[in-house]
Amino acid sequence: MSGEPQADCLFCRIVAGEIPATVVRETESTLAFRDINPQAPTHVLVIPRAHYPNAAALADADPALAGTVLAEAGRVAEDEKVAESAGGAGYRLIFNTGRGVGQTVFHAHVHVLGGADGLRERLV
Ligand code: AMP
Ligand code: ZN
After folding, report:
1. Does residue 101 sit within a domain?
2. I need a surface site. Which of 74, 76, 106, 124 has the fewest CB within 10 A?
3. Within-domain flag for 57
4. What DSSP element (H or E) covers 24?
């Protein structure tokens, strides 16, 4: 069912407190925590507490919640001082969608990446 917790989902288990995470921000509907395998000095994942398999499915089912996830990603970037408005160089938001491009956790999440030299040259 749409948005229902999935027993076999790693991020649902983090939301439930069954698996520990380094939480940096939380709201009633979202959680932001540090990636366990950081690819940049700031590497935080922002997720909805509700389970959707990817970002597009989330936006389809609950556009307001998708907007909250994005707004929280911006607040993480401010808190981490990677946003330009906080004196940083800026940050990158990534939503991997599909196994073939590296999605490994099928609970919608946005990667907030910043603070790394060379981030501008990578990917797009
Ligand atoms: P993706 O490859 O886009 O599905 O991203 C999943 C991310 O979750 C990867 O960057 C992993 O390093 C990260 N990850 C996996 N397990 C954990 C965990 N227990 N706590 C925090 N991040 C995790
Ligand atoms: Zn989930």
Report:
1. yes
2. 124
3. yes
4. strand 23-26
**Domain that residue 51 falls in:** 10-122
Q: What is the number of structural domains in the chain?
A: 1
Catalytic residues: 109
CATH number, domain at 71? 3.30.428.10
Task: Find the 21 Cα to ligand 2 centroid distance in Å.
Answer: 14
Give the integer Cα–Cα distance in Å for 68 and 74: 10
Token pair for residue 14?
A: 């983090």
Which ligand is closest in space to the CA of residue 58? 2
Residue 82 near residue 42 (C-beta atoms within 8 A): yes
Q: What is the pLDDT of residues 21-69, one digit of tens each?
A: 999 999 999 999 999 999 999 999 999 999 999 999 999 999 999 999 9
Which residues sit with their C-beta closer than 6 Å to ligand 1? Answer: 10, 19, 21, 33, 35-37, 45, 96, 102-105
- Calculate how far, in angstroms, residue 51's C-alpha sits from the geometric centre of ligand 2: 4
User: Does the residue 1 lie in any domain?
Assistant: no
